[in-house]
Amino acid sequence: MNKLIITMLSAGVITLVSASCVNAQDDDRMARFLPTELYACDFREGKGPADLDAVVDQWNAYLDEQGTDAYQAWTLTRQFFSPEQDFDVLWLGASRDGNTFGQGRDNYHATGGESIAAFNSVVECNAHVGFASRAFKLPPDYDDGSPETAVITFSDCTIKEGATYDTIAEGMTGWANTLSENGSNAGMYQWWPAYGGGDANFDFKMLGVYPNHASLGADFERVVNGALWRTRMEMLGDQIDCNESRVYDARLRRSAQLR
Questions:
Q1: If you average pLDDT over every residue of the chain, what do you get?
Q2: Is 249 exposed, middle or buried (CB count within 10 Å of its CB: 0-12, 13-18, 19+)?
Q3: How far apart are CA 118 and CA 112, in angstroms?
Q4: How far apart are CA 4 and CA 172, in angstroms?
Q5: Residue ranges of E strands in 115-244
Q6: What 8-state DSSP symbol labels residue 245?
Q7: Which residues pair with 190 in a beta bridge?
Q8: Residue 30 burial (CB < 10 Å; 0-12/13-18/19+)?
Q9: pTM across the whole model
Q10: What are the backbone angles phi and psi of residue 90, rounded to the nearest 5°?
């Protein structure tokens, strides 16, 4: 199935599929897939978060000079994790569309040598993977701008036999609407692997984006003790299997209106 998804991405078929899906909150912006990237990095010896802050400031100044307004970035540090998450920091970046993603990368490689060298002097990144990201639930305050901090959960999901993209999207939309109707202020996203991951042992990632840990805990109460897990099983239980979530504290590094 993962190879099928990669083929769909390469052929551009995923654009046609996404256009036919029903959108939570009736928001057409969520039918679009955004190019998204993750770097997994370790601090070099003697370097730490303060050094990364200084490099990010330099990088932001460079992007301001370039007039770049279509790339958003966060750094993520671990809160709930297993030994497999063996890195110091994740860099999460998203572009407005494929054109700005490709043009921005070309421009950065051509003119951003000083910034690239500065990053390389502070962190060593042993993985760089790309995804196609779709939103099924935007946070209620999305249009007010991105918050400075957030809590992000990641689960790896596999597709069950007989499920299709459309049936999964229908279940995801229904679950997103259920969360909204019950007061959840989380965002919900789906990431399909596109670049760099090799032979991934999952079909897609499911993400939750929360303003803080209190919000994450409130959804725990809704889903577990409030028995919304039964609704989730009805909507998605026959479609996908997902492992337990890893939880990260996220810090906004560059803001952009992407959807």
A1: 87
A2: middle
A3: 10
A4: 20
A5: 123-137, 149-159, 187-195, 204-210, 240-242
A6: P
A7: 134, 206
A8: buried
A9: 0.85
A10: -105, 140
Going by their DSSP bridges, the two strands 149-159 and 204-210 should be labelled as antiparallel
Of the candidates 130, 63, 118, 126, the one whose C-alpha atom is nearest the C-alpha of residue 89 is 126
Encoding tokens for residue 163?
Answer: 């499920």
Alpha carbon of 132 to those of 8, 46, 98, 259: distances in Å? 11, 35, 10, 14
Topology annotation, domain 2-254? Alpha-Beta Plaits (3.30.70)
> Around Cβ 157, how many Cβ atoms within 10 Å?
19
Cα 29 to its chain centre, rounded Å, is 16
- CA dist 48 and 43 (Å) reads 6
Query: How far apart, in whole angstroms, are the C-alpha atoms of residue 10 and residue 13?
Result: 8
Which letter does DSSP use for residue 222 in this model?
A: I
- Per-domain residue ranges of the chain: 2-254
pLDDT in tens, 140-185: 766 666 789 999 999 999 999 999 999 999 999 999 999 999 999 9
Q: For the chain, what is the radius of gyration of the CA atoms? A: 18
Q: What whole-number distance in Å separates Cα of residue 62 and Cα of residue 3?
A: 37
Secondary element (H or E) of residue 216: helix 213-220
